[in-house]
Specification:
The complex is a heterodimer of chains A (about 170) and B (about 200). Chain A is built from seven helices and no strands. Chain A is mostly helical and about 170 residues long. In chain A, helix 1 crosses helix 4, helix 3 crosses helix 4 and helix 6 runs antiparallel to helix 7. Chain A is globular and about 55 Å long. Chain B is mainly alpha-helical and about 200 residues long. Chain B has a domain of about 100 residues. Chain B has eight helices and no strands. The termini of chain B are far apart. The chains are: A mainly alpha (about 170), B mainly alpha (about 200). The interface between A and B is large, with 109 and 99 residues.
Protein backbone atom coordinates (compact mmCIF):
# COMPACT_ATOMS: atom_id res chain seq x y z
CA UNK A 1 0.00 0.00 0.00
CA UNK A 2 2.84 2.39 0.79
CA UNK A 3 3.82 2.15 -2.88
CA UNK A 4 0.65 3.97 -4.01
CA UNK A 5 1.86 7.52 -3.22
CA UNK A 6 5.22 6.67 -4.80
CA UNK A 7 3.50 5.48 -7.99
CA UNK A 8 1.50 8.72 -8.07
CA UNK A 9 4.64 10.81 -7.61
CA UNK A 10 6.80 8.97 -10.12
CA UNK A 11 4.25 8.86 -12.93
CA UNK A 12 2.95 12.41 -12.58
CA UNK A 13 6.57 13.61 -12.68
CA UNK A 14 7.38 11.44 -15.73
CA UNK A 15 4.33 12.70 -17.61
CA UNK A 16 5.83 16.18 -17.86
CA UNK A 17 8.92 14.79 -19.61
CA UNK A 18 6.96 13.32 -22.52
CA UNK A 19 7.77 16.10 -24.99
CA UNK A 20 6.96 14.62 -28.39
CA UNK A 21 5.88 11.28 -26.93
CA UNK A 22 6.57 8.67 -24.30
CA UNK A 23 10.00 7.59 -25.54
CA UNK A 24 11.53 10.90 -24.38
CA UNK A 25 10.77 9.94 -20.78
CA UNK A 26 12.11 6.37 -21.06
CA UNK A 27 15.64 6.93 -19.64
CA UNK A 28 14.19 8.68 -16.60
CA UNK A 29 11.46 6.04 -16.26
CA UNK A 30 14.14 3.36 -16.29
CA UNK A 31 16.10 5.22 -13.64
CA UNK A 32 13.10 5.56 -11.31
CA UNK A 33 11.31 2.26 -11.92
CA UNK A 34 14.39 0.02 -12.13
CA UNK A 35 17.15 1.73 -10.12
CA UNK A 36 15.48 3.95 -7.52
CA UNK A 37 12.33 1.99 -6.60
CA UNK A 38 13.32 -1.43 -7.98
CA UNK A 39 9.75 -2.17 -9.01
CA UNK A 40 10.84 -4.03 -12.15
CA UNK A 41 14.07 -5.28 -13.68
CA UNK A 42 15.45 -3.54 -16.77
CA UNK A 43 14.26 -6.43 -18.94
CA UNK A 44 10.77 -6.42 -17.42
CA UNK A 45 10.39 -2.69 -18.04
CA UNK A 46 11.47 -3.08 -21.66
CA UNK A 47 8.95 -5.91 -22.06
CA UNK A 48 6.07 -3.98 -20.51
CA UNK A 49 6.91 -0.93 -22.63
CA UNK A 50 6.95 -3.11 -25.75
CA UNK A 51 3.53 -4.59 -25.02
CA UNK A 52 2.31 -0.99 -24.73
CA UNK A 53 3.24 -0.49 -28.38
CA UNK A 54 0.58 -3.05 -29.33
CA UNK A 55 -2.16 -1.45 -27.26
CA UNK A 56 -4.89 0.58 -28.92
CA UNK A 57 -5.14 4.21 -27.83
CA UNK A 58 -2.27 5.89 -26.00
CA UNK A 59 0.73 3.51 -26.02
CA UNK A 60 1.98 4.93 -22.72
CA UNK A 61 -0.93 3.26 -20.93
CA UNK A 62 1.84 0.75 -20.20
CA UNK A 63 2.18 2.77 -16.97
CA UNK A 64 -1.03 1.01 -15.83
CA UNK A 65 0.69 -2.36 -16.22
CA UNK A 66 3.65 -1.13 -14.17
CA UNK A 67 1.18 0.11 -11.55
CA UNK A 68 -0.63 -3.23 -11.55
CA UNK A 69 2.58 -5.21 -11.12
CA UNK A 70 3.60 -2.96 -8.20
CA UNK A 71 0.29 -2.63 -6.34
CA UNK A 72 -2.57 -4.47 -8.08
CA UNK A 73 -5.66 -2.86 -9.58
CA UNK A 74 -5.45 0.26 -7.42
CA UNK A 75 -1.84 0.65 -8.52
CA UNK A 76 -2.90 0.45 -12.18
CA UNK A 77 -5.55 3.13 -11.67
CA UNK A 78 -3.26 5.45 -9.72
CA UNK A 79 -0.40 5.13 -12.21
CA UNK A 80 -2.73 5.87 -15.14
CA UNK A 81 -4.40 8.87 -13.47
CA UNK A 82 -1.05 10.25 -12.31
CA UNK A 83 0.38 9.94 -15.80
CA UNK A 84 -2.54 11.34 -17.80
CA UNK A 85 -4.31 13.87 -15.56
CA UNK A 86 -1.69 16.58 -14.83
CA UNK A 87 -0.57 17.06 -18.44
CA UNK A 88 -4.25 16.74 -19.41
CA UNK A 89 -5.14 19.84 -17.41
CA UNK A 90 -2.17 21.68 -18.91
CA UNK A 91 -3.27 20.77 -22.44
CA UNK A 92 -6.85 21.84 -21.74
CA UNK A 93 -5.69 25.21 -20.45
CA UNK A 94 -3.23 25.89 -23.27
CA UNK A 95 -5.85 24.78 -25.84
CA UNK A 96 -8.15 27.50 -24.54
CA UNK A 97 -5.60 30.32 -24.70
CA UNK A 98 -3.76 29.13 -27.84
CA UNK A 99 -5.45 31.58 -30.20
CA UNK A 100 -4.67 34.43 -27.86
CA UNK A 101 -1.02 33.39 -28.03
CA UNK A 102 -1.06 33.86 -31.81
CA UNK A 103 0.48 37.32 -31.54
CA UNK A 104 3.11 36.20 -29.03
CA UNK A 105 6.37 36.00 -31.01
CA UNK A 106 7.85 33.29 -28.75
CA UNK A 107 5.06 30.86 -29.68
CA UNK A 108 6.73 30.16 -33.03
CA UNK A 109 10.17 30.02 -31.38
CA UNK A 110 8.96 27.37 -28.93
CA UNK A 111 7.43 25.31 -31.72
CA UNK A 112 10.51 25.56 -33.96
CA UNK A 113 12.91 24.89 -31.10
CA UNK A 114 11.10 21.97 -29.50
CA UNK A 115 10.64 20.08 -32.80
CA UNK A 116 14.25 18.86 -33.11
CA UNK A 117 14.63 18.55 -29.33
CA UNK A 118 11.65 16.19 -29.19
CA UNK A 119 13.23 14.04 -31.91
CA UNK A 120 16.58 14.06 -30.10
CA UNK A 121 14.97 13.04 -26.80
CA UNK A 122 13.11 10.22 -28.54
CA UNK A 123 16.29 8.93 -30.20
CA UNK A 124 18.11 9.13 -26.86
CA UNK A 125 15.27 7.17 -25.24
CA UNK A 126 15.31 4.64 -28.03
CA UNK A 127 19.05 4.04 -27.57
CA UNK A 128 18.50 3.39 -23.85
CA UNK A 129 15.56 1.14 -24.73
CA UNK A 130 17.45 -0.70 -27.48
CA UNK A 131 20.25 -1.62 -25.07
CA UNK A 132 17.66 -3.56 -23.07
CA UNK A 133 16.00 -5.09 -26.14
CA UNK A 134 18.79 -6.02 -28.55
CA UNK A 135 20.94 -8.83 -27.10
CA UNK A 136 22.13 -10.90 -30.03
CA UNK A 137 22.02 -11.24 -33.81
CA UNK A 138 18.44 -12.56 -33.81
CA UNK A 139 16.95 -9.65 -31.85
CA UNK A 140 18.95 -7.27 -34.06
CA UNK A 141 17.61 -9.00 -37.18
CA UNK A 142 14.03 -8.75 -35.88
CA UNK A 143 14.46 -5.03 -35.16
CA UNK A 144 15.93 -4.35 -38.62
CA UNK A 145 13.23 -6.40 -40.37
CA UNK A 146 10.45 -4.56 -38.55
CA UNK A 147 12.18 -1.22 -39.24
CA UNK A 148 12.24 -1.95 -42.98
CA UNK A 149 8.73 -3.45 -43.10
CA UNK A 150 7.30 -0.50 -41.23
CA UNK A 151 8.85 2.03 -43.62
CA UNK A 152 8.10 0.14 -46.82
CA UNK A 153 4.71 -1.45 -46.22
CA UNK A 154 1.44 -0.52 -44.59
CA UNK A 155 1.20 -3.57 -42.35
CA UNK A 156 -0.44 -2.74 -39.00
CA UNK A 157 2.34 -2.16 -36.45
CA UNK A 158 0.56 -4.38 -33.90
CA UNK A 159 0.90 -7.30 -36.34
CA UNK A 160 4.60 -6.57 -36.87
CA UNK A 161 5.14 -6.65 -33.12
CA UNK A 162 3.06 -9.80 -32.74
CA UNK A 163 5.23 -11.48 -35.38
CA UNK A 164 8.19 -10.56 -33.18
CA UNK A 165 6.57 -12.71 -30.46
CA UNK A 166 6.49 -15.70 -32.81
CA UNK A 167 10.18 -15.30 -33.65
CA UNK A 168 10.85 -14.95 -29.93
CA UNK A 169 9.07 -18.20 -29.05
CA UNK A 170 10.84 -19.98 -31.90
CA UNK A 171 14.35 -18.71 -31.31
CA UNK A 172 14.87 -16.85 -28.04
CA UNK A 173 14.17 -19.42 -25.35
CA UNK B 1 -14.62 29.02 -27.59
CA UNK B 2 -17.45 28.18 -29.95
CA UNK B 3 -18.99 24.87 -29.02
CA UNK B 4 -20.57 23.00 -31.87
CA UNK B 5 -23.76 20.98 -31.87
CA UNK B 6 -22.26 17.57 -31.37
CA UNK B 7 -24.07 15.22 -29.02
CA UNK B 8 -21.94 14.18 -26.05
CA UNK B 9 -22.93 10.55 -26.59
CA UNK B 10 -21.81 10.67 -30.21
CA UNK B 11 -18.57 12.33 -29.11
CA UNK B 12 -17.87 9.70 -26.44
CA UNK B 13 -18.67 6.77 -28.74
CA UNK B 14 -16.43 8.18 -31.49
CA UNK B 15 -13.41 8.50 -29.19
CA UNK B 16 -14.15 5.19 -27.47
CA UNK B 17 -14.17 3.50 -30.88
CA UNK B 18 -10.81 5.00 -31.85
CA UNK B 19 -9.46 4.16 -28.41
CA UNK B 20 -10.48 0.55 -28.96
CA UNK B 21 -9.45 -0.10 -32.58
CA UNK B 22 -6.18 1.83 -32.96
CA UNK B 23 -3.97 -1.18 -32.23
CA UNK B 24 -0.32 -0.42 -32.76
CA UNK B 25 -0.62 3.34 -32.45
CA UNK B 26 -1.08 5.93 -35.19
CA UNK B 27 -3.99 7.44 -33.28
CA UNK B 28 -3.69 10.81 -35.03
CA UNK B 29 -4.47 9.22 -38.41
CA UNK B 30 -7.54 7.48 -36.95
CA UNK B 31 -8.68 10.78 -35.42
CA UNK B 32 -8.33 12.66 -38.69
CA UNK B 33 -10.28 9.97 -40.50
CA UNK B 34 -13.13 10.10 -37.99
CA UNK B 35 -13.33 13.78 -37.08
CA UNK B 36 -12.44 15.41 -40.40
CA UNK B 37 -13.49 12.93 -43.09
CA UNK B 38 -16.40 10.95 -41.68
CA UNK B 39 -18.06 13.19 -39.09
CA UNK B 40 -16.90 16.51 -40.61
CA UNK B 41 -16.89 18.03 -37.13
CA UNK B 42 -13.67 19.93 -37.78
CA UNK B 43 -11.82 20.84 -40.98
CA UNK B 44 -8.23 20.05 -41.92
CA UNK B 45 -6.93 23.49 -40.96
CA UNK B 46 -8.31 23.24 -37.45
CA UNK B 47 -7.12 19.65 -37.14
CA UNK B 48 -3.59 20.73 -38.09
CA UNK B 49 -3.78 23.52 -35.53
CA UNK B 50 -4.76 21.00 -32.84
CA UNK B 51 -1.88 18.69 -33.75
CA UNK B 52 0.58 21.55 -33.52
CA UNK B 53 -0.68 22.47 -30.04
CA UNK B 54 -0.55 18.82 -29.08
CA UNK B 55 3.04 18.42 -30.31
CA UNK B 56 4.29 21.45 -28.43
CA UNK B 57 3.01 20.26 -25.05
CA UNK B 58 4.05 17.37 -22.84
CA UNK B 59 1.62 14.46 -22.91
CA UNK B 60 0.84 12.00 -25.66
CA UNK B 61 -0.66 12.95 -28.99
CA UNK B 62 -3.55 10.53 -28.51
CA UNK B 63 -4.70 12.05 -25.24
CA UNK B 64 -3.76 15.67 -26.01
CA UNK B 65 -5.77 15.49 -29.23
CA UNK B 66 -8.75 13.97 -27.39
CA UNK B 67 -8.69 16.78 -24.82
CA UNK B 68 -8.32 19.56 -27.42
CA UNK B 69 -10.85 18.23 -29.92
CA UNK B 70 -13.25 17.22 -27.13
CA UNK B 71 -13.19 20.78 -25.78
CA UNK B 72 -13.74 22.35 -29.21
CA UNK B 73 -16.67 20.00 -29.89
CA UNK B 74 -18.34 19.70 -26.50
CA UNK B 75 -16.70 22.02 -23.99
CA UNK B 76 -15.13 20.78 -20.75
CA UNK B 77 -17.53 17.81 -20.50
CA UNK B 78 -16.74 16.87 -24.10
CA UNK B 79 -13.05 17.05 -23.25
CA UNK B 80 -13.47 14.69 -20.29
CA UNK B 81 -15.62 12.24 -22.27
CA UNK B 82 -13.20 12.20 -25.21
CA UNK B 83 -10.29 11.56 -22.84
CA UNK B 84 -12.08 8.71 -21.03
CA UNK B 85 -13.16 7.18 -24.34
CA UNK B 86 -9.61 7.34 -25.69
CA UNK B 87 -8.03 5.84 -22.55
CA UNK B 88 -10.49 3.24 -21.29
CA UNK B 89 -9.79 0.44 -23.82
CA UNK B 90 -6.02 0.86 -23.42
CA UNK B 91 -6.38 0.82 -19.65
CA UNK B 92 -8.29 -2.47 -19.78
CA UNK B 93 -5.82 -3.89 -22.33
CA UNK B 94 -2.71 -3.00 -20.31
CA UNK B 95 -4.17 -4.00 -16.94
CA UNK B 96 -5.15 -7.35 -18.46
CA UNK B 97 -1.60 -7.67 -19.79
CA UNK B 98 -0.40 -7.05 -16.23
CA UNK B 99 -2.71 -9.75 -14.86
CA UNK B 100 -1.36 -12.26 -17.39
CA UNK B 101 2.26 -11.17 -16.88
CA UNK B 102 1.94 -11.31 -13.09
CA UNK B 103 0.25 -14.71 -12.99
CA UNK B 104 1.89 -18.12 -12.92
CA UNK B 105 2.09 -18.63 -16.64
CA UNK B 106 4.79 -20.53 -18.51
CA UNK B 107 7.53 -18.03 -17.59
CA UNK B 108 10.27 -19.06 -20.08
CA UNK B 109 7.76 -19.12 -22.93
CA UNK B 110 6.33 -15.68 -22.11
CA UNK B 111 9.81 -14.20 -21.64
CA UNK B 112 10.94 -15.59 -24.99
CA UNK B 113 7.89 -14.13 -26.74
CA UNK B 114 8.46 -10.78 -25.05
CA UNK B 115 12.10 -10.71 -26.12
CA UNK B 116 10.87 -10.93 -29.70
CA UNK B 117 8.22 -8.30 -29.00
CA UNK B 118 10.81 -5.93 -27.54
CA UNK B 119 13.11 -6.35 -30.53
CA UNK B 120 10.21 -5.69 -32.91
CA UNK B 121 9.13 -2.66 -30.87
CA UNK B 122 12.67 -1.25 -31.15
CA UNK B 123 12.48 -1.49 -34.95
CA UNK B 124 9.00 0.00 -35.02
CA UNK B 125 9.82 2.98 -32.81
CA UNK B 126 13.01 3.59 -34.80
CA UNK B 127 10.99 3.63 -38.03
CA UNK B 128 8.43 6.05 -36.57
CA UNK B 129 11.09 8.55 -35.51
CA UNK B 130 13.07 8.06 -38.71
CA UNK B 131 10.00 9.13 -40.70
CA UNK B 132 9.29 12.08 -38.45
CA UNK B 133 12.93 13.18 -38.61
CA UNK B 134 13.09 12.87 -42.39
CA UNK B 135 9.96 14.98 -42.74
CA UNK B 136 10.68 17.70 -40.20
CA UNK B 137 14.43 18.16 -39.67
CA UNK B 138 15.84 21.04 -41.69
CA UNK B 139 19.20 22.73 -41.54
CA UNK B 140 22.26 22.62 -39.32
CA UNK B 141 20.65 23.64 -36.04
CA UNK B 142 17.95 20.95 -36.15
CA UNK B 143 20.58 18.26 -36.61
CA UNK B 144 22.75 19.80 -33.92
CA UNK B 145 19.95 19.76 -31.32
CA UNK B 146 19.09 16.12 -32.06
CA UNK B 147 22.73 15.16 -31.63
CA UNK B 148 23.12 17.27 -28.48
CA UNK B 149 20.15 15.57 -26.80
CA UNK B 150 21.44 12.09 -27.70
CA UNK B 151 25.01 12.78 -26.54
CA UNK B 152 23.96 14.42 -23.26
CA UNK B 153 21.54 11.61 -22.35
CA UNK B 154 23.40 8.55 -23.60
CA UNK B 155 27.06 9.54 -23.30
CA UNK B 156 27.16 12.07 -20.47
CA UNK B 157 24.26 10.33 -18.69
CA UNK B 158 22.55 13.57 -17.77
CA UNK B 159 18.96 13.14 -16.63
CA UNK B 160 16.08 13.78 -19.03
CA UNK B 161 14.73 16.93 -17.30
CA UNK B 162 18.22 18.50 -17.22
CA UNK B 163 18.76 17.82 -20.92
CA UNK B 164 15.27 19.09 -21.76
CA UNK B 165 15.95 22.37 -19.98
CA UNK B 166 19.45 22.84 -21.44
CA UNK B 167 18.88 21.77 -25.04
CA UNK B 168 15.26 22.98 -25.13
CA UNK B 169 16.30 26.37 -23.76
CA UNK B 170 19.16 26.79 -26.21
CA UNK B 171 16.95 25.62 -29.11
CA UNK B 172 14.13 28.02 -28.29
CA UNK B 173 16.65 30.85 -27.88
CA UNK B 174 18.26 29.97 -31.23
CA UNK B 175 14.88 30.34 -32.94
CA UNK B 176 14.04 33.46 -30.88
CA UNK B 177 11.84 36.13 -32.41
CA UNK B 178 13.80 38.40 -34.71
CA UNK B 179 13.96 41.90 -33.27
CA UNK B 180 11.86 44.36 -35.24
CA UNK B 181 14.02 46.62 -37.37
CA UNK B 182 14.33 49.94 -35.62
CA UNK B 183 12.86 52.15 -38.35
CA UNK B 184 14.00 55.44 -36.90
CA UNK B 185 17.61 54.28 -36.56
CA UNK B 186 17.53 52.95 -40.10
CA UNK B 187 16.23 56.27 -41.37
CA UNK B 188 18.97 58.15 -39.57
CA UNK B 189 21.59 55.83 -40.96
CA UNK B 190 20.22 56.44 -44.43
CA UNK B 191 20.40 60.18 -43.83
CA UNK B 192 23.99 60.01 -42.59
CA UNK B 193 24.97 57.94 -45.62
CA UNK B 194 23.32 60.42 -47.96
CA UNK B 195 25.50 63.16 -46.47
CA UNK B 196 28.68 61.29 -47.19
Amino acid sequence: MDQIPRLAGVFSYLSFLTIGGGMAAFPEMKNLVVNVHQWLTDEQLVHVYSVGQMSPGPNMMMVAEVGYLVAGFLGALVAALAFFLPTGFLTFAVGRIWNRLAGWPWRDSIQKGLGPVAIGMAVAGLITFGKGAIHNWLTLAVALAVFAASLRTRINPALLIASGAIVGVAGLR
Amino acid sequence: MSERKVSQTDLFVTFLTIGAISFGGGVVAYLRDALVRKKKWIDDTEFLELTSISNTLPGLNATNMAILAGDRLGGPLGSVLAMIGMCLPAFIFMTAAGVVYGSHVDRPLVDAALRGVAAAATGLIAATWFSIGKKSLRGFYDGFFVLAAVVLVNYFKLSVPVVLVIVGGVAIFTFRPKPKVDEKAAEEEQWIKSLG
